[in-house]
Design goal:
heterotrimer; A mainly alpha (291); B alpha/beta (328); C mainly alpha (316); B: 328 residues; alpha/beta; eight-stranded mixed β-sheet; four-stranded antiparallel β-sheet; C: 316 residues; 13 helices
């Protein structure tokens, strides 16, 4: 675009252009984005991609080595490992994304109210959040999973709730500092209603931080789901997830370590991808970090 | 005529950032004699700070510096890192604009001054401490013995700036570069700092490059003035000459913009501002940088770069239409 | 500084109180009659009624809470399913985990901090990219997988190190042999976080005005970076360390499980799997209390390192 054309774009559009350009200059972040999208796609289209159903067993080929029929080999019950990994992506992506959304849905409004309104509600929320933060994330998730009972749904619930306190703290911090911004004060002085201010001024400006945090939360929750399933507290067989596969792989570490390697690598790559993407996003959206 | 202490020739600085290049300084040249006070004047963004920082190699990685800066026989821009470190703080010192952020918050004020002494003069810690207290007294900080142990956040803005000056003068440098030393301070404190600098200059004979956007400060203390605009030198003259006989429309504009009390007439005269803004410099301009805001602009100024021309003894201007009246 | 510390202690106590309340509620929130759960196999109504009376379950909730809290403060956390004292069980298992945590923190500091500084100093160059990427990988690797992989490589294939169990510290060499792999597993994630935080803190301080002043004074690059910049970064990083210790405890849970170490972490899992609610309650309470105390210690450390607080008692 020529200078003149760029100048004609609205300021918001121009900012998006700049951010997009900055983002695509970072190779690692771009790789992260594409790999993440790949995993999401695999998760969504799992039945189309996996050559076998995850429940399908072939008792003639137990613990088989990788071959043309079984790309990654088979496990102790004859499941095709490649298909397992593909289907496993579903549970992990679901857990990661849904739990994050759940946490956001709860934490952002609460944090917003606490940070913006202050008054008596803020100290209360702050203390409660601090108390929740006193519980190490996993212990909280494990405890919740124990109370709720093991299943993917409950694992998502537990993980989401576990992530809420930290997000509340962040949302509250943002709302707190944005409240002191001149344009917010001007809006208050002009008699704008609280709802309008929150909607027009505070929330949009918080968005970039929140988005970055959410993107960085997904990999944590993916690992969280894997951990819970590994401990038997999440996805239950015959449903599968990477954590479940790793749990089963433990017994065969000596004979067939590949049972643990493939799902593990999948976790690492997926997590790494989201982390790279989130990192790149943060570099681009946060005006304070220099390149 | 003796050789100048510092001779800057065709200094240019370019920054390369994610969003493009900025040509902050374009072929700036000036000299500084022993014991002289040179005022480097211009608006924010005109490149005056950048040009000074480039002399000591204090610009970030994104900067490319070309030209020559001859100090005492060596070219500062070509010198090795080791030699540069020996010059910094010892031969040429810098006083920064923001005393709060320019002092390390986790070390005592005394430590930060002693550091320079021990590094360059190889003093023992006790000698350094003694000299530090002397320096604090020199810059007129009361209760120096107590202040030595205090942290920057415990001192007021004015005192912090004095500490910066003490730190800069610790090794008795030949040149002191002061970048807007009073801008971040209250007006009442400013006078004190300027007073101090004038006093120190007389006592120690240090040459000073005083960077400021405030012509009033310049009138107070400078011997000669260089006026910069958009990275280029617009005018240069001894201070009295500049105030009496400004030639460049920008200089005139600056002088006119100084608010004055007790005007003739009804005492209500409108502040004269210079319309327009400093251009952002992604390319070095091929015409007069001031053309967009200049009342004397014409086709010539919009298509060619004016060269520096001599209009009086030691008085240079880069303008196609120099001269003119200005309201006193 | 005194005021700052006192305020932090006060806040910590409040947080602990609220946390204990959550723990108490959490267990009460379980479906079913706690008396029945506590009774275990015995379904005799008279026994259950007795249990209910003994445990004060027939009293109103706030009273129960106060009673429970009172016991807890005296060190009595009740008895688990096997009628063993919960506090005793926890106290015997805790040192193991503490040793593991200590080793991990040591490894994390020894690896994370220098690497972070190096990456910042050589920013943009190969060293930086490599370190940052390795750091990111370290963050992305789940503890249990890393544990499994290390076991596979070092125990199964190379037979260098044992695969599990724990040898008490009375036999230091053997103890170390057994602890080194789990410590590496736990320490890796922490090291990665430390490295990133150190790097970003260093980048920020290296770009600050006071570092520019230090350079302008002609100080050596080593002094500028290693002393002026580093000292400031340390302050920023300290606050992060406190937050990370919670993750360390979480990681210990799984690491102990994989390496077969009978510590606090594995106790957590066992208690959950056995649905031993009294034990769970005690564990979660101790974990929370420990975390709060450690954070308090970190806050105190922070106030020592930061002269703005040490001298005037208020940040800034």
């Amino acid at each position: 675009m020529s200078y003149v054309e760029v100048a004609r774009l609205s300021p918001a559009a121009r900012r998006r252009r700049i951010m997009r350009r900055r983002f695509f200059r970072r190779p690692l972040a771009v790789i992260g984005l594409f790999v993440s999208l790949t995993f999401v796609t695999v998760a969504v289209f799992a039945p189309l991609i996996a050559p076998y159903s995850y429940k399908e067993t072939d008792f003639n080929a137990i613990l088989a080595h990788p071959s043309r029929e079984h790309l990654f080999g088979t496990d102790a019950l004859g499941h095709d490992i490649f298909s397992q990994v593909v289907y496993g992506a579903r549970a992990s992506m679901e857990a990661g994304v849904l739990a994050t959304l759940l946490a956001l849905a709860v934490a952002v409004p609460v944090g917003l109210v606490a940070g913006y309104y202050r008054g008596w509600i803020d100290p209360v929320i702050a203390r409660l959040t601090d108390a929740l933060l006193a519980f190490p994330f996993l212990i909280l998730a494990v405890g919740l999973a124990a109370i709720l009972g093991p299943s993917l749904k409950n694992a998502i619930l537990a993980l989401g709730i576990g992530a809420v306190p930290q997000l509340i703290r962040i949302a509250r911090g943002e709302a707190l500092s944005l409240r002191e911004e001149d344009y917010v004060r001007a809006a208050i002085a002009n008699g704008a209603s609280d709802l309008t201010i929150l909607r027009r001024h505070v929330l949009p400006n918080m968005m970039s931080t929140i988005i970055v945090q959410a993107t960085l939360l997904i990999p944590i929750l993916i690992i969280g789901e894997a951990t819970l399933s590994f401990l038997g507290l999440g996805v239950q067989p015959p449903a599968t997830s990477w954590g479940v596969q790793l749990r089963a792989a433990q017994d065969y570490l000596f004979d067939a370590p590949r049972l643990a390697i493939y799902p593990g690598v999948a976790i690492v790559v997926a997590t790494l991808a989201f982390n790279l993407f989130g990192d790149g996003l943060r570099d681009v959206l946060d005006p304070r970090t220099q390149r | 005529m003796t050789a100048p202490l510092l001779e800057v020739t065709d200094l240019s600085v370019r920054f390369d950032t994610d969003d493009g290049s900025v040509h902050a300084v374009d072929r700036l040249s000036y000299t500084l004699a022993l014991g002289e006070v040179l005022g480097l004047v211009g608006e924010s963004g005109c490149g005056k700070s950048v040009s000074a920082l480039s002399l000591l190699g204090l610009l970030p990685q994104t900067a490319t510096v070309t030209g020559k800066a001859s100090f005492d026989g060596t070219d500062l821009l070509e010198v090795s890192a080791r030699q540069l470190r020996r010059i910094r703080g010892r031969e040429i010192s810098f006083v920064f604009q923001e005393p709060m952020t320019s002092l390390n918050p986790v070390f005592t004020v005394g430590k930060q001054i002693s550091e320079v002494l021990r590094r360059h003069l190889d003093l023992s810690s006790r000698q350094a401490r003694r000299r530090t207290i002397e320096l604090l007294k020199l810059v007129r900080i009361p209760a120096a013995e107590r202040r030595v142990e205090e942290y920057p956040h415990q001192l007021s803005g004015g005192m912090r700036q004095r500490v910066m000056i003490a730190m800069a003068l610790a090794c008795d440098p030949k040149i002191l570069i002061a970048d807007e030393p009073t801008t971040a301070l209250d007006v009442t404190i400013q006078a004190g700092i300027l007073d101090l600098m004038r006093d120190l200059r007389e006592r120690l004979g240090t040459a000073i490059v005083l960077i400021t956007h405030n012509l009033g400060v310049v009138a107070d203390i400078a011997d000669r003035v260089v006026v910069m605009y958009a990275g280029r030198k617009a005018e240069e003259a001894p201070v009295r000459e500049l105030f009496a006989n400004p030639q460049h429309p920008y200089t005139i504009g600056l002088l006119n913009a100084i608010p004055r009390l007790g005007e003739e007439g009804n005492g209500r005269v409108r502040l004269q501002e210079i319309p327009g803004r400093v251009p952002s410099l992604s390319e070095p301009l091929d015409h007069c940088a001031f053309a967009d805001r200049c009342p004397r602009a014409d086709d010539l100024t919009r298509s060619h770069v004016p060269d520096l021309e001599r209009v009086g003894p030691e008085h240079l201007v880069a303008c196609f239409h120099p001269g003119g009246e200005w309201r006193r | 500084m005194g005021g700052f510390v006192l305020r932090k202690i006060g806040a910590a106590l409040i947080v602990l109180l609220i946390a204990s309340f959550f723990v108490f509620l959490g267990i009460r929130a379980l479906p079913g009659d706690p008396a029945v759960a506590l009774g275990g196999e015995d379904r005799d109504p008279q026994v259950i009624a007795q249990i209910r009376h003994d445990y004060g379950l027939d009293k109103p909730l706030p009273v129960q809470y106060v009673r429970w809290l009172g016991h807890a403060l005296r060190g009595d956390l009740g008895e688990d399913q096997r009628s063993l004292s919960v506090s005793h069980t926890i106290i015997t298992k805790l040192p193991v985990t503490l040793e593991l945590a200590g080793l991990s923190v040591l490894i994390a500091i020894l690896i994370g901090i220098p690497t972070g500084v190096l990456a910042a100093v050589r920013r943009g160059k190969v060293t930086d990219y490599v370190s940052t990427t390795i750091g990111l990988i370290g963050l992305s690797v789940p503890h249990f997988w890393l544990g499994l992989m290390l076991i596979t490589v070092f125990s199964v294939n190379l037979h260098w190190l044992p695969a599990g169990d724990y040898v008490p510290i009375a036999h230091p060499l053997s103890n170390l042999e057994h602890m080194i792999l789990p410590a590496i597993v736990l320490g890796t994630g922490f090291a990665a976080v430390l490295m990133r935080q150190m790097r970003s803190a260093m980048l920020e301080s290296m770009g600050s005005d006071y570092v520019r002043t230090a350079r302008a004074k002609g100080l050596s690059e080593l002094t500028v970076v290693g002393w002026h910049a580093f000292r400031n970064s340390l302050i920023t990083v300290t606050t992060v360390i406190g937050l990370q210790l919670g993750a360390l405890i979480s990681g210990a849970v799984i690491t102990e499980q994989i390496f077969g170490i009978a510590g606090f972490g594995r106790l957590t899992i066992e208690s959950v799997q056995q649905r031993d609610y009294t034990l769970i309650q005690g564990i979660v309470l101790v974990a929370a209390a420990g975390y709060v105390l450690v954070n308090l210690a970190v806050d105190i450390l922070y106030s020592i390192l930061n002269p703005r607080i040490r001298v005037s008692g208020r940040p800034t």
